[in-house]
Each structure stands twice: as C-alpha cells, then as structure tokens.
Amino acid sequence: MKRPNDNRSDLSIGFFIAPRILLFILTVCCVCSMGFYYFKKENIVSVGQAAGLVLVPFQKGINTVGDFFFDLEQDKLKMDEALEKIQLLEAEKEDLLNTIQENEKLVFDYQELCQLLELKDSYSDYETTGATVVFSDPSSNWFSHITIDKGSEDGIEENMNVIADGGLVGYVSEVSRNHSIVSTIINDNTNVSGMQLSTRDNCMVIGDFPLMKEDGLLRLDYMSSDFDMTKDTTIVTSDISDRYLPGIVIGYVEEVTVNANKLTSSGYLRPAVDFRHLNHVLVITTKKEIDS
Amino acid sequence: MKKFFFKFTLWIILILSAFLLQNNLCRMIPFFQTAPNLLLIVTFSLGFLRGKVTGMMTGLVCGLLLDAFSGGILGANVLAFIYIGYLNGLLSRILVNDMILLPLCLSVINEICYSLYSYVVRVLLIGKTNVWDYVKTIMLPELILTVFCTVILYGIIMTVNRRLGAKEKEGENRIA
Fold it and tell me: Quick check: ipTM above 0.85?
C-alpha cells in the first residue's frame, strides 16, 4: 500500500485505489479511532508496540552519543578549577556532617512520631525499579508524556506510579514489550488528588500546560477556605486517590488565595520534580489496587 | 523495482530522522523550549513536491509515529497529517514552484491550521478554553521555529527531489 513514488500526475497510474477514495477510507478510520477514544478513553490498538521495537534502540543510541559528548565537555574542566572545587567541597563536607548529626536526631524523632501515628507506610517502603527515560521531551508540544526503556518484559504494568527525585512524575499509561509511556502530572488532562502533609486537608492538583511552560507551576484547586496558605508547605498524594499511592510528594505550595465566594480557595503548586531534566525515574511496582 | 526500493528507503530514512531529530532537538539545544514540527514540514513538502498520494502516505506514517509516542488519541494527528499531505498535493497543481517565499508561506499556513486543529481537539477532549495562553506558550514559538526549520529542511528535500527528478527524466515539464 505504502508507495511513495506515485507518479506526479494526479491520476496516479499504477496505484490501485484512487487518492480520493483512499483519503476517504483513512478519514473514516481516523474518525472511528477518535470516536472510540472519546467514549472509551482508550485507544483501539497500540501502535507504540511496533514502533517502539524499531525506534527505542535508535533513541538509546542517540542518548549514548549525547552522553558521550557531554562527558567530553565535562573532561575539559581545568585541573585548577577542580582543585579549587575540592577545597570548597571539603569545607562544605564539614558543614554537612554537622547537619547530618542534627538530622539524625530529627529522623529518630520522626520515626517515633510516625509510630505514634501508625503511619509506617512512608513511600520509601514501596518496591521500586529504576528506568531510563528515552523520549523525554515529547515530539508533540501539546502533550507531556515520557517514554521509559522498561516494558512488560521487566514487569511494568499499567497504572503503576512513577517517581523521580523523591517526587511524583506520573503513572504508566501504556505498556509495550520493551518500553512504556508515562503520563505525567503536568499534563492538561490529569488531576491528582492531594493533601497537605501536616493538616491532611484535601486538594486537587491540576495540570496546566501553558502555566507549566511559562512559570513551571501546577494549579491547586477545590480546597476549603481555611487551607494553610503558607508558602512551601508540602503537598502529597492523598489516601483517597484511586490511582496514586498515598504519601508521595507532589510539590510545594507557591501561592494560595481564597476565591471570591469565600468558601473555596485555589492557588499554585511548584512540582518537586524537574520535568525538563528527567533522565532516570523509579517505577513503583506496588499498585494501589493491591494495597487497598 | 530497484528504483522503487531506493526511493522507499530514502523516504523512510527522511521520516525517521525527522522524528528523532524533533524528539531530541530540545535536549541538544538547551534554550529550545519548544520543538519545531519537523514532521509537518516533511509531510507538506513531500505532498507539495511529489503529489497527493505521497503526501497522504507520509502524513499517515508521520501521524502514526506522533500518536504512538505522544500517548494522545490515536487518529488525531493521523487525520491532520493526511489532510495536510493531500491538500498540499492539490495545491501543487495550482501554484507554481519558483517563488522562494512559497514554501515559507505554505509552512506558516500549514502550521497555523495544525495548531488550531490541535487546539480544537484539546477543547473537545479536556474542555479548557484559555486560547491566549496556548497561543502565547505553544503556538507562536512552534510557528516561528517551524518556519525557521522549513528553510533548511525544505531545501534538503527539494534538492533530493531534483536529483531524483533528473534521474527520472520526467516531471520537469510539470513545473513550468
């Protein structure tokens, strides 16, 4: 069917179907496929399967080449600079050691408090598996999905949560044999139900693409008017979410204002993950369904 | 038959490299916030230079690639791309291909149509209507970059096409 060299005349000699009819057939197929998605919220067939087999190796190659050049550039850092850096780092290390000692005490306190609250499931307890991002910046500027190099062969399943840098990235929306697609929380059509860590007030984290592109922020909404408005309070995934495991950090409050009706408030949230520089992610192999 | 396979290989290489480049340009050049729509350029130039069937087929493959990896609705991009290929194929009968600015104009028009189409699909899907935000953050940067890339990519495609045309000894009379 795919014959790129149709003759330039519009009669397309040697082609079995007239262009007009072909266009009509393809249009009907596309419209059916879109209609199916509209009603069922899933695609008829997964084209990613076949395409991934061909393209993922290519992409891995490109990534390797890119890393190689990056490494070369890094090597160029001069010796002096390196030595200077060592001195600085030594000083920093001393500071950090002090901080660690202080923190150890805090961690101990925290564990004690957690036991009191019976909150033992902090998300460090979830089983995870590492994966590398192969397509990070999506080819389409209109969606934000990332492709990772692990698929059903490595035990990845749909709806598994994906984290990076200790923050929520999204969930696995499509699984193929050797790769899977992760739908991120910055996507326009994603809502994550979250809660404030300390007060357990519920809120909704809503992706907003233009806002993300411009300021790197997400939207916060559906909160009661007595929501804690201090900047930098942590928002985590809530217990009532049907997809996300509870207690994963989503981000930090940037700004909250009470709406005009004085009953609800809304605001902005700075995600914990740097979505522009995602290289390695962790897929949590524990799923919500099993937990509940 | 040999000629056919040669062209088929060229065609596949062109599409795949455009796709991979589009995916990686953001990473290679740090200050690029937006990716230029290289697949769109490939589709409309092949449609314009090689006729509507080629354009349609290119659109089909490009659209499928985009849909497969952007995780969106299967068919949304395919639909847009086959029409872009087909309509540009039709245009080639009307317009004369000796203006330098013509590919640029085509690029602008195609990109605007594609952006508007994407926006409409989104509105149907999600129900968000803040047009101005989308124009400012996605459409305009994409448009500018795409037009810029058209200059390079269209040039390459046209050169290759001329070489092929010289081999075929035909088609020269059409572009009069």
Answer: no
